[in-house]
Amino acid sequence: MQSRAVALMSESALAGNLTALARRAGVPLLLPVKANAYGHGLAEVVAVAARHPDVWGFAVAVPQEAAALADLAPGKPILLLTPPTPEEVRPLADLGVRLPVASLAQAEALPDHARAHLKVDTGMNRLGARPEEAVEIGRRLAERGLLEGAYTHFATADEPDLSFAHEQLARFASVLAALPPVLAHAANGGGVLSFGPLPGMGLARPGLAAYGYAPPHLRDRAPLTPVMTLRARVTHVHTAHAGESVSYGGLWRASRETTVATVGVGYADGYPRNATGHAEVLVAGERRPVLGRICMDQMMVDVTGLPVRVGDWVEVWGAGEITVSDVATWGGTIEYEVLTGVGARVERRAAP
Q1: Is 76 known to be catalytic?
Q2: DSSP letter (8 states) at residue 83
Q3: Domains (ranges, CATH) in the chain?
């Protein structure tokens, strides 16, 4: 069966981004590959990143991702970023997964062969131990020989105002100063691009930046290229006559005879429905508007004057004329949500 939509993952773009970010950070990378590698395809991304000399290991959000990753990248360190349930601790430790610890109870529940990364909440107020609690937890882990690393997460490192990020960094540094030497990491993509090398850090964790995206004010800090190109096939070509409407609700009405291509991608595949009325795609190298309401499985495009046939590919987004940033803006959302929303029925393929 032919795929109606394909997400192409550029191996060269990913490798180039990893090199650029490691150079900017001055340390190896702990690459986040949660949420199917930010929608890009876990297997496709890991096949490149596991061989990259600047990638120390991988970070995931849930135990299922850790288990899948252990099969894809045997021998590479894997850090689980969110707390496991008590029943999951030993199986994860048996796989060699590094476990997050943010309480004395979690520390005491670890088996003797576990490796732990102390999670310090320096102001994100999502997960982690407060600095005044983290030191005691870290010391307990160190006494048992389980403490490999410590980490925190910046809340505002991708903003122009870095004052709160500096406060977070100072809180984290105070914890590190009270512990034996550990593998410390704090910088997400915004942190890497905003700060560059950070004193005392052994790793960096750039997420979205590794896949080619950064806030406009940080784009000159490292040469990044979007990794994913999303293409979809034309499934039908027809004519809408003047006065006829297209799609649900009759939001768009033809003012002239219009050649319409139906394209096999919709909001069930991750394209934001809220981009209705704004969206464009590339057809035969030309930007063309999406007509009317975006559907669950399809969208309709004005291809008047173009030699379009059923089976042709349309570029929905990529690294050039139309990017995920454009689609996110049209949909009133962020690149993270668009990329991670790419559905399971969109085929993932590696590309050069």
Answers
A1: no
A2: P
A3: 11-212 (3.20.20.10), 228-351 (2.40.37.10)
